Predict the structure.
Amino acid sequence: MRVLLVESESEDALFLRDVLAEIEEGRYWSNWVHIEMLHAPTWSDAAAILATESVDIILLDLDLADCQGVDTFRRSQAAAAHIPVVLLAGGSQDEAMATRLVRDGVQDFLLKKQVDCAPLAHAIRNAVERHRQLTAARAAAMTDSLTGLLNRSSFLTFGDRDRKLAERLGRRLMVMVAEPKNLSEIAAAYGEQRRDLTLVEVADHLRSLASPADLLARIGQARFGLTIVDTEAEPVEAAWARIHHAALEHRIVIGSAIFHPESPLSLDALLEQAALDLAPNAFAMRR
């Protein structure tokens, strides 16, 4: 485990280094964990470490030479929101501030005068586990449990971001909707398990057709959404032809609509247009 200690007081840093060494030797967790401590006396030093090193947890003193109070935590969140933070509070004012910051994303805090092997080991273990659970919960809230794709809410959020980006860059954006053909008949004949398997297969096919820059999601019971930004390497016409041809081979029906920056439409309007275009014989892309 790599611990980044952001602490301006050299004596406190030396003390915490000794405590972490004792935690490693004392086996305070069910499994033995090697602890490597990285020390940053200022926020600038911490930012440099976070930019180049992998870190599992941050022990953060709020009062640094180049950054104080809530701003210190805000900077840590901006630089490494994916890393759990345990605050080291120096006094009653710091304790009150740390208590408030727990509501804003701090995983735990300790008063410096309370720091010892057992309390610090407990705080680190709980912070890492709480952060893991929170990350998993956020991911679950954004994804579809059956296919593993983003869900409708995430698609609307990120799709609108893509639409605004396309408008700002003066580029076209293609919005596609896709559905497996005859899914209701498949469910009636073979049951819900086969229906769900069909949806997973369709998701896998669409995932193989989308590029890493494209936005793909399950946006309805049997409907998928895809956004593709126009590029010189692959204009939206070429992308439509490629995806439509491959989709037909897997009995997937495609509908599409094009966002034009000179006459911008909302994402909802584009999805409505694409849904109207969603028909087995819709070979002509909406322009």
